Known about the structure:
single chain, mainly alpha, 132 residues
Amino acid sequence: MNFAVISYLYIVFFVIxxxxxxxxxxxxxxxxxxxxxxxxxxxxxxxxxxxxxxKILLNNSLQLFKQSLKLLGLVxxxxxxxxxxxxxxxxxxxxxxxxxxxYIATLPGLLLSVIAFATxxxxxxxxxxxxL
Length: 132
């Protein structure tokens, strides 16, 4: 595959990793996990009567739905940003989104994404260590 394709996709994945790092995924996932734990404890509780359990579980399910929509929105933002970066490849003559999308769907393309994400997080970790 062309070096320009690999380089451009590496930059795209690196930028997506940067974006994913600064979006609040972990607080959302932690909140969803805690709501699940509370719901399970409510179901197992013997000292709460059924109408009260229904109210608690209904509230928890509504909160889970809201948090899941937020998480889906964040994933959508990342996907949209990645797609815009792929569309921006039309500026270069040798690149277009069809070639890039075909390369992403191959095993080397998937490995390139993993390498780009790993590079980003390793560089971030090194930067924090050097900075301290």
